[in-house]
Amino acid sequence: MSAPSPKENVAVSEDEVKKLGEFLRNETNPLKARFRALFTLRNINNLLAIQQIGDCFSDPSALLKHELAYCLGQMQSHEAIPILASVLNNLEEHPMVRHEAAEALGAIGGEDCLQILKKYSQDKVTEVAETVELALARICHVQEYANLKQSSPYFSVDPAFPLKGCSDVELLTTMLMNEKLSLYQRYQAMFTLRDLATPESIEAIGKGLKASSALFRHEIAFVLGQLQNSQSIEVLTENLKDLGENEMVRHECAEALGAIGTKECEAILKEFLADEKRVVKESCEVALDICEYEMNGNFQYADGLQTILKQS
Ligand SMILES: [Fe+2]
Ligand SMILES: [Fe+2]
């Protein structure tokens, strides 16, 4: 999820990190508060924080677990590799969680992750196999350009690097929608359009919500969430409202609407708070919390350490 990003490093004691972990794992806590605890652990980003996150993978919420994997990828620490490898290896696990574990291994990169990922390139679950294809391409891209570092304006480690110096929206749109190109190339077009962040480029990204790959559509929704532009409300709502749409896509549309955070988004999200799909319902709960944050904007989303510790 494109949660509000860390603005500064958080200095905390071991005891506080453990308490955050306990709070995160406690199923009786509201999901939105557990997400805040998770993002605080992500920002702390040390070995103990990684262990606390890793210990939460037995939770029943696929939404929470996919976010655990996402955060471990964003932290880019090699310590998380065995945790993510075992999540990917669990064929009983929800596809969205396995997808995020594969993507996280791609974000960490290096030879170890490459070898793990290779075993899943023919995975039976399309979203997983496609994620592995992307993650392998990303790792090779980094290796080819001698440990290329990403500098996303959104503080995110993305599944593909933008195309440097390309600002031709028409060409990028053609690339984005060309299903004959590799997923990696199409993702590159997507992130280039994102970084241009003009009304035209945002409109072009929105067209991707009609592409045939569910994985691709979910990433489109994620990127629209990062852009936080109200011009995307309509297209995101359309996919969220489509009950036949893949739940991973509907989830990402809900969270993107939360990130855009207008009154209109709030009203739409409330409509799906009782959705039949647990992942969608929970996404709306968390998205409404982000929405509230965006509308008030007077406290930092993931620095609620003291607030969380007071509650625990
Ligand atoms: Fe997600
Ligand atoms: Fe994802």
Major beta sheet, specifics? none
Instruction: Find the CATH topology of the largest domain.
Output: Leucine-rich Repeat Variant
Ions, cofactors, ligands: which are bound? fe (ii) ion
Fraction in helix = 55-70%
| Structural shape | globular
Treating each run of at least 4 consecutive H or I residues as one helix, how many helices? Answer: 17
- Helix and strand succession? HHHHHHHHHHHHHHHHH
Rg computed from alpha carbons, rounded to a whole number of angstroms: 18 Å
Total beta-strand segments? 0
Q: So, the CATH homologous superfamily of the largest domain?
A: Leucine-rich Repeat Variant
Determine the structural class based on helices, strands and strand pairing.
mainly alpha
Average pLDDT works out at 93
Structure description:
There is one protein chain. With 312 residues, this protein is mainly α. The chain has 2 domains: 7-161, Alpha Horseshoe (Leucine-rich Repeat Variant); 206-295, Leucine-rich Repeat Variant, CATH 1.25.10.10. It is 65% helix and 0% strand. It is built from 17 helices and no strands. It has helices at residues 14-25, 31-44, 47-54, 62-75, 81-89, 95-108, 110-118, 126-144, 169-177, 183-196, 199-207, 214-227, 233-241, 247-260, 263-271, 278-296, 305-311. It is globular, with a radius of gyration of 18 Å. The two termini are 25 Å apart. The structure holds fe (ii) ion (2 copies). Residues 1, 66, 251-252 line the site of one fe (ii) ion.
